[in-house]
Design goal:
Length: 302
């Protein structure tokens, strides 16, 4: 942020997963901004504050950073600002954060924020702090509208719990879309092809992802089609893998699609990742996984 923005409407948060609760906050922000002819600004942090202060206790992310950015862009906000959460930001007082960033850089005139949001050194800044000083700061503070589904608040924690119990339908309801991961198809070691199951491969890198195992998935982004497949996400212990890789065997498909950007939607978990004693045993299980994926799609969509 090298230059100040014009008067703006701002919201702040982690937005992990960009779920329906987050979408409601941004819709609220856009209404405020439109009524006052101001641009919308969304502030996020990287890493997320809890990952900085307590990395061992931080929950696994619903989405990688790049996916979060893509989801937020689809909501058609004017400015997305990512602040690096480091020692300097962690030690900044709440008042300095307001004066230097919200006012000095963003010219904030309307702030939409959750009543449980904290910021500044020792979490001294919160909704009440902002309300008490809003007149002095020169902006209006508005609390976010809580979204309830089935009588409970929509939250990233609730979505994680749904995914961990393999309830992808519940996760879809809370997210407003199927749970997915995206990336560019890269060359792999061609082991799947040798075993009779050629896969597309996407390097995940981030080992803190919430999903791990074998899944029935839908692949979007290839020729505008929605393709069915069986996916493995993990470190591939049978071949002593280290990096987290998403591999997808697309059913009834045989094309060269290296370099394509795809979105993989997770629909149903088949089993956990396992280490097998031989490639023959691995191949047999891939065959079983494929049949289970086909049975899922037949029961679900036929």
């Amino acid at each position: 942020m090298t230059r100040a923005l014009p008067a703006s409407a701002v919201t702040i948060g982690n937005f992990d997963g960009v779920h329906r609760g987050h979408q409601r906050v941004i819709s609220q922000l856009k209404r405020v901004a439109e009524s006052a002819s101001m641009p919308t600004v969304v502030i996020i942090f990287e890493p997320q504050p809890i990952e900085y202060f307590a990395p061992d206790k931080a929950p696994k992310r619903l989405a990688r950073f790049r996916d979060k950015i893509a989801f937020l862009k689809k909501l058609q906000i004017d400015f997305l600002i990512c602040l690096r959460f480091d020692q300097a930001l962690a030690s900044q007082s709440a008042e300095d954060f307001v004066q230097q960033i919200l006012i000095g850089k963003l010219s904030t005139r309307h702030l939409v924020i959750g009543d449980d949001f904290h910021f500044g050194k020792n979490r001294q800044g919160n909704f009440d702090f902002l309300c008490q000083h809003s007149e002095r700061f020169g902006f209006i503070v508005e609390s976010t509208e809580t979204l309830l589904i089935a009588g409970e608040r929509v939250s990233s924690t609730r979505i994680r719990q749904s995914i961990q119990r393999d309830d992808f339908d519940a996760a879809r309801e809370l997210l407003g879309r199927p749970y997915s991961l995206s990336g560019r198809i890269a060359h792999g070691k061609k082991l799947g092809r040798e075993l009779g199951y050629p896969t597309i491969n996407i390097k995940m890198g981030d080992k803190t992802l919430i999903v791990k195992g074998i899944f029935a998935v839908r692949v979007k982004g290839i020729d505008n089609r929605e393709l069915q497949g069986v996916a493995s996400i993990g470190t591939r212990p049978t071949v002593n893998g280290v990096d987290t890789i998403l591999e997808v065997y697309i059913l009834d498909f045989d094309q060269d699609v290296y370099g394509c950007s795809v979105e993989i939607e997770f629909l149903h978990k088949i089993r956990d990742e396992q280490k097998f004693d031989s490639l023959e045993e691995l191949s047999a299980h891939i065959g079983q996984d494929t049949e289970k994926a086909k049975a899922f799609f037949e029961s679900r969509y036929v």
